[in-house]
Amino acid sequence: MRNGIVLFTSDRGIAPAALARAAEERGFDTLYVPEHTHIPVRRDAAHPTGGDELPDDRYLRTLDPWVSLATAAAVTTRIGLSTAVALPVESDPITLAKTIATLDHLSGGRVTIGAGFGWNTDELSDHHVPAAKRRTVLKEYLEAMRALWTEEEAAYDGEFVSFGPSWAYPKPPQGRVPVIIGAGGGPKTMKWIAAHADGWMTTPIETDIAEKAALLRKEWAEAGRDGAPDVRVLVAKKPAPEDFADWAAAEAGELIWGVPDADEATVYAYLDKLAGRLDLS
Questions:
Q1: How many other β-carbons are positioned within 10 Å of the β-carbon of residue 265?
Q2: Per the CB 3.0–4.6 Å rule, which of 4, 69, 122, 198 could disulfide with 81?
Q3: Nearest-CA neighbor of 123 among 63, 50, 59?
Q4: Could you tell me how far CA 278 lies from the centroid of its own chain?
Q5: Dihedral, CA of residue 47, residue 23, residue 19 and residue 231, to nearest 10
Q6: How far is CA 9 from CA 133, 178, 202, in A?
Q7: Terminus-to-terminus CA distance in the chain, angstroms?
Q8: Distance CA 94, CA 84 (A)
Q9: Which residues contact 143 (CB under 8 A, 6 or more apart)?
Q10: 2-7 and 30-33: which strand pairing?
């Protein structure tokens, strides 16, 4: 399995570029950063953990993911650049397609999109995204962006995205930039991923991962997809041997380890310890 790291970025602590360079030097495979454009003070949406309050004030202080990854791309050559998770429906899809294609072009094809549907419906509402239709909005955004990335004269006509024949460059070196959906692994989500995405990223509170990954592979086959879905596990606690067994049974391709949003010396020491424990070289 590959090993990635995720930093809950903020305007405090280590900068994404410094972390990316250090992680690449220590043998990690992918850097992930999150996205929240803003957090409305009045909140009706419960946090995924079920709490009424946000568990961390970094939700209010999150850096822009694509700017963060661009700074990381500039100081690295190998490490993958991804999000855990981005919220594409909170951006204009034509502009976002250009941003991601540019990042993929300048980084030499290192971008993967970890995308969420958006648990914070208060946040989505300010972006004029109907909560009940956020999966439809994301589907259309991804379809429209893929058209812009892969077609000489791209056009799209949907309920939430519409544009006539257009030229858009650069094209991502990868062609179709992979999209991994970070969401709870229920039947509805697995069917959605099989139809519209390239893989699944677990939530921090996910259980029975092998069983859910098996459901995804079943939906994948029934959708007529080639190959296999990309399964990535967000490690949210100190794992036990049975956890590694579950992840292996899930055929996980990557484990994603959290790092502290702290000063450089603290983070480098943490990375050294983690890389040693994982026997990276």
A1: 9
A2: 69
A3: 59
A4: 22
A5: -20
A6: 28, 22, 19
A7: 14
A8: 21
A9: 156, 158, 161, 196
A10: parallel
**The overall pTM is greater than 0.90:** yes
Q: What pLDDT is stored for residue 274 in this prediction? A: 97
- Hey, what are 239's tokens? 């794992």
Taking 50 as the pLDDT cut, the residues of the chain under it are: none
Number of helices followed by number of strands (H, E) in the chain: 9, 10
Backbone region of residue 222 per phi and psi (left: phi > 0; alpha: psi in -120 to 50; beta: other values): alpha
Residue pair 206/185 in contact by the 8 Å Cβ criterion? yes
Nearest of 59, 60, 73 to residue 31 by alpha carbon: 73
pLDDT score, position 224: 98
How far apart are the C-alpha atoms of 14 and 261, rounded to whole Å? Answer: 6
Per-residue b or e along 222-233, where b marks 16 or more CB atoms closer than 10 Å to that residue's CB:
eeeeeeebbbbb
3-state secondary structure of 7: strand
What was the pLDDT predicted at 53?
81
Tens of pLDDT along 58-101?
999 999 999 999 999 999 999 999 999 999 999 999 999 999 99
Q: Which residue has the tokens 């957090």?
A: 39
Q: What is the pLDDT of residues 5-26, one digit of tens each?
A: 999 999 999 999 999 999 999 9
How far is it, in rounded angstroms, from Cα 203 to Cα 6? Answer: 13
Task: Give the type of residue at 96.
Answer: L
